[in-house]
Amino acid sequence: MTEPAPSLVVSSQWLADHLADPALRLFDATAGTAVAPGASNAEPARAVFEKAHIPGARYLDLKNELSDTAAALDFTRLAPEAAAAAFARLGVGPDALVVVYSTSTYGWATRVWWLLNDLGFTRVAVLDGGLAKWIKDGRPTASGAQPSYPPASAFTPVTQHLFADLPDVSAAVERGGATLVNALSPDHFSGAVAGPHGRRGRIPGSISLPAGSLVAAADNSLKPLDVLKAEFTARGISPESDVIAYCGSGIAATLDGFVLKALGHDKVRVYDGSLSEWSKDPQRPLEA
Questions:
Q1: HEC states along 105-174?
Q2: Of all helices (H) and strands (E), which one includes residue 12?
Q3: Cβ(98)–Cβ(123) below 8 Å
Q4: Was domain 9-136 assigned CATH 3.40.250.10?
Q5: Which residues, in sequence order, are bridge partners of residue 207?
Q6: DSSP 3-state of 250
Q7: 163-278 is classed in which CATH architecture?
Q8: Residues annotated as catalytic (active site), given as ranges
Q9: What is the pLDDT of residues 138-192, one digit of tens each?
């Protein structure tokens, strides 16, 4: 490659120019076909991938290959060493350049970006607009199954603490100190629609910033950074804010976190268990 590895977003033009790069590891990380990602029952979308994908891409089964399948909650992150080993099995070694995309919404792709960055691996970017914009830009697709990349040597994980867990969120509810951002739809936020375990509402003190509102409807690209900055600023979130984003299963919230990282925010975490964990216990409060 003749330019530095990207670390956030790449365009379809950039990807088209680099498809032949031997270091490239290109993945479709879609875990379900739902419009709103994060449902705990989302299943791999391998059949959708085999119908149409970017040439050279491989399918990444986020739910079963990069999550702790022994955990009580779907999509629970793996321990650092196990996560690095899982990525190595997928062909992601220390020198890999990872680009990840989704056939539906960004959350599936930004979840993989978040997992890698949490391990200290920064040679990873998300394809702006995913498969939808790739096709809209007139670029070709391929079909059929694809063999996995050859396994790689595992990189050494250096945890960046990009995830929050239940005690962190409980402390934020009880004592403040962190801004809780709900990335689900307004109807989920308000309680008009039931969330996991049939409970309605949001974690007390949360503000609403739906992940879907960060994306341009016309071509599925991310909105311009100045527009995105205004969205967060209007909700009182500054670069100095300590933010914990959450959703249903820690998927959609990674898009909110990803955008904040793109805007230069350092103190951003994603609540891994999100409402799937919080609402499981009826003693934990929800407000609507």
A1: CCHHHHHHHHHHHHCCCCCEEEECCHHHHHHHCCCCCECCCCCCCCCCCCCCCCCCCCEECHHHHHHHHH
A2: helix 12-18
A3: yes
A4: yes
A5: 181
A6: coil
A7: 3-Layer(aba) Sandwich (3.40)
A8: 247
A9: 999 999 999 999 999 999 999 999 999 999 999 999 999 999 999 999 999 999 9
